[in-house]
Amino acid sequence: MSQELISAARNKAGDYFRQGYNCSESIFLAFRDLVAPELDAGLVKMFTGFGGGLGHAGCMCGALSVAEMIISLFTGRTSNQEDREVSYQAAREYHDLFNERFGGTCCRALNPHSFDTPEHLKNCLKITGNTGKLLMEYLIQKGLVA
User: Fold this and answer.
1) Tens of pLDDT along 85-131?
2) How far apart are CA 72 and CA 74, in angstroms?
3) Residue of 104, 14, 17, 23 whose CA lies nearest to 67
4) Measuring CA to CA, which of 6, 32, 48, 87 is 20 to 30 A from 136?
């Protein structure tokens, strides 16, 4: 089952991107479908501005940003009385995995092509799908998703 879930995460994220969703929206929608269907699909609008490294600013990759939000969904706290270090550690670990896998975390470094050109879109499709894969691998490895 784990390998099927990992493949499904990669494929769903890529499919949403092919449908015209940006990288961040695609990660949210794929993981909502696979591991958090109780979340309202309309929440996708919260993630639109993260595409292009925060609205084409080229900063932190939108796929990475939303992957970190998904991790916090499983590790975050609901009260300021709870420990936040578990979530901080998970966020840092995933950040470092992403950096190692892709060679950076900034959109402009990961994808030097002009926004919305065929080259840019092709590269973002790969990054988005592979971010979905890496995220699902991480969630399974940490026992956050079965």
Assistant:
1) 999 999 999 999 999 999 999 999 999 998 889 999 999 999 999 99
2) 5
3) 23
4) 48
> Is residue 106 classed as helix, strand or coil in its secondary structure?
strand
- Chain centroid offset of residue 37 CA: 16
- The CA–CA distances, whole Å, from 140 to 2, 83, 108, 109 equal 7, 22, 29, 28
Residue type, 83: D
Six-digit token string for 104 = 């950076």
pLDDT digits (tens, 9 = 90+) for 11-34: 999 999 999 999 999 999 999 999
| Separation of alpha carbons 50 and 85, rounded Å | 25
- Supply φ then ψ for residue 107, to 5 degrees: -55, -50
β-bridge mates for residue 60, sequence order: 106
* Contacts of 90 by beta carbon, 8 Å cutoff, 6+ apart: 71, 72, 74, 75, 142
